[in-house]
Amino acid sequence: MSNAVANGVAGAGGGIIAQIITYPLQTVNTRQQTERSAKKGLAKQPSNSSGSNNTLVQILHVIRTEGWGGLYSGLKPSLLGTAASQGIYYYFYQVFKNKAEAVAAARRDKGHGDGTVGMISWLVVAAIAGSLNVLLTNPIWVLVTRMQTHTQAERKILEERKEDLLREASESSLRNSTLQDKLAELDSLKPRPYGTLHAVREVFSEAGITGFWKGIIPTLIMVCNPSIQFMIYETSLKHLRAKRAANKWGSKRVTALEVFFLGALAKLGATVTTYPLLVVKSRLQAKQEIGGNITLRYSGTLDAIVKMIRHEGLPGFYKGMSTKIVQSVFAASVLFMVKEEIIKAYMLLEHKHRKLRLNFQK
Question: Spans of the Solcar repeats (predicted)?
Fold first, then answer.
């Protein structure tokens, strides 16, 4: 097995474990990102589904109204997407990393440089790997976003129907008892079952095959997120290893806990920098009825940005950021730690296998 394949498998394994642990936070964060709320003075503030922007309160609200399953809506395609994304990303990242290191070594042999890969090269390597990953896996994440926000969208539709009934009652002679019966009937309705195949059919019926690549522009721009993340991570790891190598008495190995904290630091810097693009991407991929008012529905990336600025202001681009920081930083830390441990185990097994083969040949 090549080191690129080993890194791909390790990345997929680490990503799956991190995703399972942090998925409830991701579900709540996606709902926070796609919740529309107008600037004061422009329109009546829509009611938040949980009545609070507090993450813990929203998690408890989902459990109370939808059960534990509500926090894990879309988990199956999400795990598939995570395995595919991390596997593809780390495979191509390692392939291009090997090429960058080979080029750096060749330049050193010719008397140019010290043989190490520079910061710009790390950014380019991460950007290429990220772009390939986005183009291949975007359809999966469109389905995951739909499934995570389905209940929220259904609730918005029911709220609109209630408002229509109240408006109709105020403009006509609709009896109060009839109105109450109709409102009670709407209250008794529950969100329809919504599986992966349902999401596939819905996306295709709305926009055809191109619907599975909704949000591709901000997602491609967001390739700079892992680029920034890996630039910080690789640079910090390189510095730590150099410091350890110069230490004559202490341990020269980088521990799993240190990798955990380096991964957290790298993801924190990347998330804060690129979060507005993540909100735009989620808005485009979610079911558009979630916005209620047609002026808050988006035809594309630029339309989404303009309408968000006009109706919600700059705070709209940072909805749920605290939740995302906790979720993504913790997930990245777990991913890096698990990935490095899997790679270590693979290298140990590879060394033992090579040693056994040499002994057998003797």
Answer: 2-99, 117-239, 254-345
